[in-house]
Write a structure and sequence with these properties.
single chain, about 170 residues, alpha+beta, HIT family, subunit A, five-stranded antiparallel beta sheet, 5 helices, 5 strands, about 15% strand
Length: about 170
């Protein structure tokens, strides 16, 4: 509780400082307060992650609409955000509840995944479960989908997990 209050206080001070609401030595106090523990680890620079992904997965890595959402160049109401991924509602929902979980690291396709991506992909699954609970669909069930490549109907070349729920889903899909 104290941690959350201190972080909220820091954010308040930062916002006031941006608006010119703090005077004199307040910036010194702000720097001192910014050393308080943080809930989320430092968010990596998206340009650095694209460069890292190009080395790891190849030159077919590209900046996508998801990169723009991560950098907040395109508005999206984030349902979850941490140093590894973000989650937000799909703009073209295929079910009453339909959100995406995307890693910050722009892995282009599922077939590009490497063995050392295991922890990141597991994290995406855990976040999908947390957001499903938040959205109220965890008890009745939901479907997780990762589309891969042209035949898998992947529309954005940045791996992402679809979570669909809020109604009885049909099987088989597609």
């Amino acid at each position: 509780m104290t941690l959350v209050k201190s972080i909220s206080f820091i954010n308040l001070l930062k916002n006031l400082n941006k608006r010119g609401g703090l005077i004199g030595s307040s910036s010194i106090h702000l720097r001192q307060l910014s050393t308080a523990p943080k809930i989320m680890a430092a968010v990596p620079n998206q340009s650095d992650l694209v460069a890292e992904a190009k080395v790891k997965y190849g030159e077919h890595v590209e900046d996508t609409i998801f990169g723009k959402i991560i950098r907040q160049e395109i508005p999206a109401k984030l349902l979850h955000e941490d140093d590894k991924c973000v989650a937000f509602d799909d703009v073209a929902p295929q079910a009453p509840v339909h959100f995406l979980v995307i890693p910050r690291l722009p892995i282009p396709h599922h077939h590009d995944v490497q063995d050392n991506d295991e922890a990141l992909l597991g994290h995406l699954m855990v976040v999908a479960k947390k957001v499903a609970v938040q959205k109220g669909i965890a008890e009745t069930g939901y479907r997780l989908v990762i589309n891969d490549g042209a035949d898998g109907c992947q529309s954005v070349n940045h791996i992402h997990v679809h979570c669909l729920g809020g109604r009885k889903l049909n099987w088989p899909p597609g």
